[in-house]
Amino acid sequence: MAKNCLVGQSGGPTCVINASLLGVIKEARKHAEIGKIFGCKNGISGVIHEQFIDLSKYDDKKLELLKQTPSAILGSVRFCLNKIEDYEKILEVFKKYEIGYFLYIGGNDSMDVVNKLSIYFKEMNYNCCVIGIPKTIDNDLLFTDHTPGYGSAIRFIANSVCQIYEDTSCYQNGRVTVVEIMGRDTGWLTAASKLASLVSKGPDLIYLPECAFNLDDFINKIEDIYQKKKKVLVCVSEGIRDDSGKFLVEKFAYNQDNDVFGHMQLGGVSSVLTHIIKERLNIPVRAIELNLLQRCFAITSSKIDVDEAIRCGSYGLRQALFGQSGKMVVIKRSKKEKYHIMYRLVDVNKIANQTKYFPKEWIINDSDISSCYISYALPLMNQEIKVVYENGLIKFFKL
Amino acid sequence: MAKNCLVGQSGGPTCVINASLLGVIKEARKHAEIGKIFGCKNGISGVIHEQFIDLSKYDDKKLELLKQTPSAILGSVRFCLNKIEDYEKILEVFKKYEIGYFLYIGGNDSMDVVNKLSIYFKEMNYNCCVIGIPKTIDNDLLFTDHTPGYGSAIRFIANSVCQIYEDTSCYQNGRVTVVEIMGRDTGWLTAASKLASLVSKGPDLIYLPECAFNLDDFINKIEDIYQKKKKVLVCVSEGIRDDSGKFLVEKFAYNQDNDVFGHMQLGGVSSVLTHIIKERLNIPVRAIELNLLQRCFAITSSKIDVDEAIRCGSYGLRQALFGQSGKMVVIKRSKKEKYHIMYRLVDVNKIANQTKYFPKEWIINDSDISSCYISYALPLMNQEIKVVYENGLIKFFKL
Lengths: 399, 399
Known about the structure:
Two copies of one chain form a homodimer.
Chain A: E1 3-9, H1 17-28, E2 34-40, H2 44-48, E3 52-54, H3 60-63, H4 84-96, E4 99-106, H5 108-123, E5 129-134, H6 150-168, E6 176-181, H7 188-191, E7 205-207, H8 215-229, E8 232-237, H9 248-254, H10 269-281, E9 285-289, H11 293-296, H12 303-321, E10 327-333, E11 341-347, H13 348-351, E12 363-364, E13 368-369, H14 371-381, E14 389-390, E15 393-394
Parallel strand pairs in A: 1-2, 1-4, 4-5, 5-10, 6-8, 6-9, 7-8
Antiparallel strand pairs in A: 2-3, 10-11, 12-13, 14-15
Helix pairs in contact in A: 1-12
């Protein structure tokens, strides 16, 4: 007898989390073992509150727009599965809707739900395969060469930085421009600013959280470059820390003894740094946060990233049909020159609460990135998608 | 006898200032009366310092990249022409290089140079036609329906806002997101955030400098919307002012009696507003400055804008060949339904130091924009350019 498929989205959105949803829906339609395809609103919270959407009704052409729709079309959630009544409610709803396959598209934290539910269903003798589909722009998941979402994020970042570089270079006497890039504890996203140097003469300096940030050294480097070029472009991770492990933002925004900003934090690390540069060197500065656009500017999405996100979804469902559960899809890359990947599964409990850091051997003198990274990153972002516009505006899939 | 043509770029860069340069070069190649085509580095400063680039040598195919190269490829400058020795030096250099046609691509301030030089050359009986080619993302020049640069800027802004809207909508309990948009004293750029509502359900509120900003009213509106939707997207002009005409940023960042930020300014109006919202309503907030990307993100340039920028350049040179001088090119739009424009000249002294404000009758209840603006703006940005990439990065013209 056919069982139904349920798919949900969770955690911070990316440009391709909806592409993975598309992969699941497309694959589900190929299999007679699968009856209906449901989506739950706002991840696991939509299961508990029985907010289901029948995804079977949308035609293929309309669904294609999922490839260029950022954010999470089903709605997202940050939810920790702990209470026994939540488990019981989920099981009740799964039984009611005859869910035999549950695909959960999310990051690190969402994999905890995959892990717990797969164990719980086994304990309760409920036959349902639970598979995690990875997504995060941060690229900080272990066991996978890269994460869906990363390629599109770095394509936006690299293209933004080279365009900003050209803009900030046009005056003879320029400024120190500090571009702040996301990535939490890791420098994967900020490293992508190095790709801009393939078309522009910068950035001049790049700082990742993987190296302890030395403020005096930073100021000296800025001064040197500014004296020579009269303009400096610096890219920094939001999460840079000093050698004691303290976030730079935290250090300067909250330390009452050394209070630069009063009692409240007003901006990120780019504000902090431009303020210090201005104070110490008295040269013109500008802070730029790339901010949310890094994870939602679908117009510049990477085609490879979109395609891989779709395939992660469809591969995940196929593996569920094979009876796999409690696993996450990962991308393995062959060592060959030409870019070639395979999809595999990894036990989801190995993934949760782990972080894959940017390799230190790819960081040069604390403030530059080696060509090894360029070789790693280029295949993930070297093709564009064909965007469908209406009135000059990117067209979204709407439920 | 053939005379040479000189072209320069000045003021803040845009995505299409190089397209206007392309228009001048392409047109110059058609005319036997024109010998060489020179570019001066960093605007008029490159004339004074005799820094000329021979633009005749580049082939057409390479020059095509100017259509997608942001910033000012010749370098820009902010320069006030006052000293008599500067005038004399300019005349000397013009004579030496036999310049008969001078095209200056720039904004409001740059037109002052066009005005002064055209008068000076006439007084000195030096036969040289000086024509201004307009550019500014701000769209604040009089006598022209719109300015080259504006269409591309609003295409980026509208697409950014709708993508940010989707991103910020994905949680059930969201934040108040305040997006800060450029435009100095006018709201032309911020109004473009309304175009996002053609594909998304927001923004919720839009504030332009043309209406006095009432903080209490603003907070009330935010509270209302947040109570209903649990998320709010607000777009504000960097230059909003209170009813006494004081910039909001200035009021809260520098007023020592009412000192919110201590002694220094750390961010723009979005930082100020999110801080106040947080303090008064204690709800989650996020500030986003679209920042420099508004004027340099050439990947999303408007095709109409690029084409018009080229034609402004070529029209300007043709008019110089007809003997016109001391004029700026403007764009006139017919009143017909279908978008149709013509190029004309206006005396440059009418343009300088004037500002074209956003029409107050297009602002609804201080915080929304009428459909009249949508009709005005859509034809300026409803087509995309075909971007040439290399390795996934936008390709630039390089001198």
